[in-house]
Automatic annotation (TrEMBL):
InterPro entries: Cupin_2 (IPR013096), GPI/OXD (IPR051610), RmlC-like_jellyroll (IPR014710), RmlC_Cupin_sf (IPR011051)
Domain Cupin type-2 as annotated: residue spans: 39-106
Classification of source organism: Bacteria, Pseudomonadati, Pseudomonadota, Alphaproteobacteria, Rhodobacterales
Coiled coil: none
Entry superkingdom: Bacteria
Protein name, per record: Cupin type-2 domain-containing protein
Keywords: Metal-binding
Entry-linked SUPFAM superfamilies: RmlC-like cupins (SSF51182)
C-alpha cells in the first residue's frame, strides 16, 4: 500500500534526461543524501573520465555489458554485477559492446555538483 505522497517510478514516469549526446538517464531518486539513476548507454558511447569528491557510487548492470575503468584498472560488468567506486577514484564508464547497456548508478551522498573531470 502506498500513501498519497509516494509514487511508483519507472522509465515511463521518472524524470528523463539525455547526456553525452546519445545516452539517457532516468532519475529514480534524487536527494542530497542519495541518488539512484537508471542509465542507458548505446554501443561505442562513453562518459568523461572523472572522480567525485564525496560521493560513493555503485554501478549495477541490469542488461548488456558495461566496461568500467577505475584508477587504471579495467572491469567488465555483465547483468547482476555491481562495482563500487569510492570518492576520489577516477573512473569512466563506457560501452565497448555491440548492444545497449542498462545499469543503475547509486550515489551517496548524491553526486550532483560533486564531479571533477580528470
Amino acid at each position: 500500500m502506498t500513501s498519497a505522497s509516494q509514487t511508483v517510478l519507472n522509465r515511463q514516469s521518472a524524470p528523463h534526461y539525455t547526456w553525452g549526446e546519445v545516452c539517457e538517464g532516468w532519475r529514480l531518486m534524487g536527494t542530497l543524501g542519495l541518488s539512484v539513476i537508471e542509465e542507458r548507454m548505446p554501443p561505442n558511447a562513453e562518459e568523461v573520465r572523472h572522480f567525485h569528491q564525496e560521493a560513493h557510487q555503485l554501478f549495477y548492470v541490469i542488461e548488456g555489458e558495461l566496461s568500467m575503468e577505475v584508477e587504471g584498472e579495467m572491469h567488465r560488468l555483465t547483468p547482476n554485477d555491481a562495482l563500487p567506486v569510492l570518492p576520489q577514484q577516477a573512473h569512466q564508464a563506457r560501452n565497448d559492446s555491440q548492444s545497449d547497456v542498462r545499469f543503475l548508478v547509486i550515489s551517496a551522498p548524491g553526486a550532483d555538483g560533486d564531479r571533477v573531470p580528470t
